[in-house]
Write a structure and sequence with these properties.
Elements (H helix, E strand, L loop, with lengths): L1 E6 L2 E6 L3 E5 L8 E4 L2 E6 L2 E4 L7 E20 L4 E19 L1
Antiparallel strand pairs: 1-2, 1-5, 3-8, 4-7, 5-6, 7-8
Subunit structure: Part of the 50S ribosomal subunit. Contacts protein L20.
GO cellular component, one term: cytoplasm
Pfam families: Ribosomal_L21p
């Protein structure tokens, strides 16, 4: 059994027991979260999509991590103008506990 879930504007294919990184979700480690925006469900060969997929995906927040540093460098030649900025995107590791 698997489902395609929309989390923070991105689609993820999830199955029960799977662990994955998603864009930052509010909450602490150990908190339970529920995703109701399910786009597609496959239950032992029985497929339902769109409005017919009336399923909720339950997950547990495992940890929060930072991604790799992304550098934004701006420069104008012959002017002495240089700007170097960077940021690290926050990700949340979740473990899917159930699809019901």
């Amino acid at each position: 059994m698997f489902a395609v879930v929309k989390i923070a504007g991105q689609q993820f294919k999830v199955s029960e027991g799977q662990s994955l990184y998603v864009p930052h979700i509010e909450g602490n480690a150990g908190d339970q979260v529920e995703f109701s925006d399910v786009l597609f469900v496959d239950t032992d060969g029985k497929i339902s999509a769109g409005a017919d997929a009336k399923v909720k995906v339950k997950a547990e927040i495992v940890a929060e991590k930072k991604g790799k540093t992304v550098i934004a460098f701006k420069m104008k030649r012959r002017k002495g103008f240089r700007k170097k900025r960077g940021h690290r995107t926050l990700y949340t590791q979740i473990k899917v506990t159930g699809i019901a």
